[in-house]
Amino acid sequence: MAVQADRSRPWKIVTVGTVFVLIGGLGVGVAAAREGRSTPTVRCPSIVNALPDVPAEARQEVSHNLGQLNQQISDANRRLANSRRSRDPIFVENAILSPLEDKRLATIDLIATAIERGGERPSGLEKLAACTVRAATSSKPDPAKATGPLRSDFVNIRDVGRAPAPPARGNSASTGTFVARCGNNEEAHNNPDNHIVAPGVRNGAQHMHDYVGNLTTDGNSTDASLARGGTTCANNDRSAYFWPVLRVRNGQNGDDVNAPGGGRDGNVGQILEPDRVQLQFRGNPTSKVRAMPKFLRVITGDAKAVTNGNGNVKAAWTCSGFANRVTTKYPLCPQGSLVQRVLDFPSCWDGTNTDSANHRTHIVSPQRSGACPSGFKAVPQLRMTLTYDVPDGELFAVDAFPDQKHNPKTDHADFHNIMPKRLMDQVVNCINSGRRC
Fold first, then answer.
1. Which of 104, 138, 172 is the last residue of a domain?
2. Which residues pair with 239 in a beta bridge?
3. What does DSSP say about strands 246-248 and 339-344: parallel, antiparallel, or unpaired?
4. Which strands, in side-by-side order, build the sheet including 246-248?
5. Residue 214, CA distances (Å) to 142, 246, 346 in order
6. pLDDT tens digits along 14-72
7. Based on C-alpha coordinates, what's the Rg of the chain?
8. What is residue 246's three-state secondary structure?
9. What is the dihedral of CA 27, 28, 29, 35, to 10 degrees?
């Protein structure tokens, strides 16, 4: 259960399992330290770990500028990836690293000034402005990386206890639903990128994603590029919906066995196309919902749960016909029952930001009562339900980072809202009026 922060006190930017943490480990720049790159990547020192307690009145400005630092690194990575001279040290120094250092110095100064208004100015931050470039790695398919899942990662669905009852609905509950119809990825739109968490980085996820909605989504996607893209969704919904693929682990290789995000990163087996993808927007048990802002970015779950612990785990596995039995393990379903992944997204928005430095603090999950924490407002909650017809007797696993061993707890998903205003208004109206749309 999330613990509400005391907003009257200065706070420290730390990485713990609570929704009120400002930064969760991205201070070095998104994905700069991950392995398995096919191109050089920028690595910068962490500003987050060098900050003192931040006065309450400086939090928003500091958060914004920490996000700017990450964006600057992402832009530099994008330029590296798109340049033919990315391995020319003179070019990299003059065209990438030197301009990046100047931008970081200016942004670091803004952070220090914001903190100084409510306390003592931090010293020495400017020493963290300079960045380096990590050389490209070249890896061949490595069967040793294809570890997991373990036998203990599976459970018979009949052995799973019944899920707890949802929060009781109050008089102001928003009880309607809206289903976005975007297909099942019949287009086979797959790549190992993640433009939200690792923008501008090829193979930033080190595992393959399924996409529906926007047809252009990849590591270089931006608000503007997605707004111009085509879509698989009805009603001109150009939003990007994506999640790691599920594979049958039957000893037969997929087409990506030699590709980054596939066999090169330990993700082996044949990709299963979902039998059904349901994208349902739901209400809040204690209040009406307001519209999501255009370009809102939302993530759910933790792709690094084995390393990070259970603080952000949202994995929910079940079988069709057993909706009241939900587990964080891979479910073994009886004949005729299909494997299902249920991914509930955070739905309490801070009312201001469309993203945050750790991609979590601008939109958080409701409390156990169903109500949003103080300072947050309810928006439509996206629930992805992914249904798979896994062949009888076959083992399966979700794609994952190599060191996460395909643990089912690492299940996660991403959403980037590009709905037209008229459509978002329709979603809100359906939910608040109690209709099924």
1. 138
2. none
3. unpaired
4. 270-272, 246-248, 396-398
5. 32, 20, 21
6. 332 322 233 333 333 333 333 334 567 788 887 866 888 778 788 778 877 887 887 88
7. 22
8. strand
9. -130
What span, in angstroms and rounded, lies between the C-alpha atoms of 218 and 254? 21
- Using an 8 Å Cβ cutoff, are 324 and 331 in contact? no
Phi, psi of 163 (to 5 degrees): -70, 150
Whether 47 and 187 map to the same domain: the answer is no
Please tell me the distance from the alpha carbon of residue 280 to that of residue 381, in angstroms, as a whole number: 8
Does 107 lie in the same domain as 18? yes
**Measured distance CA(218)–CA(193) in Å, rounded:** 6
Please name which of 318, 294, 296, 273 lies closest in space to residue 414, comparing C-alpha atoms: 296
Same domain, 293 and 220: yes
Q: How many domains does the chain have?
A: 2
Tokens (6 digits) for 149: 């899942």
User: Helix H segments across 238-361?
Assistant: 305-308
Domain containing 386: what range? 143-432
**Amino acid in the structure at residue 305:** A
Q: Are residues 349 and 426 in the same domain?
A: yes
Q: What mean pLDDT do residues 389-402 have?
A: 92
